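Example S7 (C-alpha cells).
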C-alpha cells in the first residue's frame, strides 16, 4: 500500500517511538525528518535470520539491530495469580546473543534515556499506559489477555495493532547512521502491519 497523508497521521505515534529508539540505539539525529510507509502481509518478516527469535516468559515486544545480535526484550511481569504486577508490570532488559544469550539488565543511562519505559495504570483494570523514555509522546497499552498472558498494543485510527518487534538498520561507525527502522505487529483483522521509517 502506498503511503498517504492519512497513513502518515496514523503512524505518527509508532514512528515517534521508533525514531526515539533509533536515536538512542545508534546515535541518529533527533532532528532527522522521516519518510514512513505502511503495508500489510500475511507472515511476520524475519530480518535477522542469524539471530534467535527470543521467546522469554511474558515477552510482549523485542528490538533487534543490524549492528549486532544483542536484543532488547520487553516482558510483562505477573503476580502469583497470573495478573499483571501493578508494582512492576513491564520489565526491559538485554538478551546478549553476541555472548551466551544471557539476560542482562540495562545500564542506568539505557534505562533512563534510551530503552526504558514509564508505566502507569490505565482507566481499564488490567491495563497500563506505557511510554518510551526515548519518545515520551508515543504511548502503547499493556493489556492482560489471560492468566500470565499480555500484549502491547497501539491504536491506529481505532484499530488495534498488537506489537511484535522492531528492527533498526544502521551503518556502524564513530557516528552510526540509521538507514531504516521497521516495526511489525498484528492488526486486529489478522494481517501483519509492516511500518517502515527512513530518514531523509
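Recovered sequence:
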Amino acid at each position: 500500500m502506498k503511503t498517504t497523508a492519512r497513513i502518515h497521521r496514523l503512524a505518527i505515534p509508532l514512528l515517534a517511538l521508533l525514531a526515539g529508539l533509533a536515536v538512542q540505539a545508534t546515535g541518529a539525529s533527533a532532528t532527522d525528518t522521516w519518510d514512513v510507509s505502511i503495508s500489510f502481509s500475511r507472515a511476520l518478516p524475519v530480518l535477522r535470520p542469524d539471530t534467535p527469535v527470543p521467546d522469554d516468559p511474558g515477552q510482549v515486544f523485542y528490538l533487534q539491530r543490524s549492528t549486532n545480535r544483542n536484543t532488547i526484550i520487553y516482558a510483562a511481569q505477573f503476580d502469583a495469580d497470573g495478573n499483571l504486577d501493578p508494582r512492576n508490570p513491564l520489565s526491559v532488559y538485554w538478551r546478549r546473543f553476541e555472548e551466551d544469550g544471557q539476560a542482562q539488565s540495562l545500564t542506568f543511562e539505557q534505562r533512563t534515556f534510551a530503552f526504558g519505559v514509564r508505566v502507569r495504570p490505565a482507566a481499564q483494570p488490567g491495563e497500563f499506559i506505557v511510554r518510551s523514555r526515548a519518545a515520551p509522546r508515543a504511548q502503547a497499552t499493556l493489556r492482560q489477555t489471560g492468566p500470565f498472558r499480555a500484549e502491547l498494543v497501539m491504536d491506529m485510527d481505532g484499530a488495534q495493532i498488537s506489537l511484535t518487534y522492531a528492527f533498526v538498520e544502521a551503518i556502524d561507525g564513530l557516528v552510526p547512521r540509521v538507514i531504516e527502522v521497521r516495526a511489525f505487529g498484528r492488526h486486529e483483522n489478522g494481517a501483519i502491519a509492516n511500518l517502515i521509517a527512513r530518514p531523509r
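Notes on this example. The helical segments are 5-26, 108-114.
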